[in-house]
Design goal:
The chain is of the alpha/beta class and about 220 residues long. It has helices spanning about 25-40, 50-65, 85-95, 95-100, 105-120, 120-125, 135-150, 165-170, 205-220; strands spanning about 45-50, 70-75, 160-165, 190-195. It has a 4-stranded parallel sheet.
């Protein structure tokens, strides 16, 4: 509806971060800074898919912590991460076909990421030069964001959240009904089940159902 403007945020680990260490907390702060440039006060609705859901959860927590009005929060198939092993379990479920087809390539990528965990400062400390092309910059941002996800340990959120989940998303969360967020959410948790898998939740074959349920959530009290 016209009275519900929508903004999309591209938030990533980069020069806009307030510190050098990649973290979901600092990404959430970047998001909030941008949001407040558009809407300085009042209630907002926050939606994030996958890793974006982690940023949304942390942003909502920061809003309440600062004394702001409780935002409406929807985590779209965003399982709570449980360290490095939990992260790689999710990756395994997402890319198992690729693993079967190209095991050597996937193993090299996993080894590279593991080295980044062991030596995070060295891998993240490389400065971006003007000669870097877009692909190199994007890969660097993705690696930094992956590191932020693995290290994220959410603190307690005193508000309520809604979880839109797929069956695959629940598998990524080790079968937990609330995708792992129940233990860190003090308010109510609403569940919305949608068809599809984690990576194709917004494909044309599913978008009508997802849109209908999203509008219903936006219009509900």
């Amino acid at each position: 509806p016209p009275d519900q403007p929508v903004y999309g945020l591209h938030v990533y680990c980069g020069s806009e971060q307030p510190d050098d260490k990649p973290s979901i907390s600092s990404l959430a702060q970047v998001a909030l800074t941008r949001i407040r440039e558009v809407q300085p006060t009042g209630q907002i609705a926050l939606l994030g898919h996958s890793a974006g859901g982690l940023i949304v959860f942390e942003a909502a927590r920061k809003i309440l912590e600062a004394g702001g009005p409780e935002p409406r929060v929807l985590l779209m198939d965003a399982p709570r991460p449980y360290g490095t092993l939990g992260y790689y379990w999710g990756e395994l479920l997402l890319y198992w076909r690729e693993i079967i087809r190209h095991p050597a390539k996937v193993l090299r990528g996993a080894t590279t990421r593991l080295l980044q965990v062991v030596r995070p400062r060295e891998s993240h400390g490389q400065a971006t030069s003007k000669t870097d092309d877009l692909t190199t910059m994007t890969e660097r941002q993705e690696k930094s964001t992956d590191a932020a996800i693995r290290c994220y340990k959410p603190q307690v959120y005193n508000g309520s959240i809604t979880i839109m989940r797929t069956r695959q998303g629940r598998m990524m969360a080790l079968g937990l009904r609330h995708l792992g967020w129940a233990s860190v959410t003090k308010g109510g948790i609403r569940i919305i089940d949608v068809p599809g898998a984690h990576l194709n939740i917004l494909d044309t074959s599913h978008i009508k159902i997802v849109t209908k349920k999203l509008i219903s959530w936006l219009c509900s009290e």
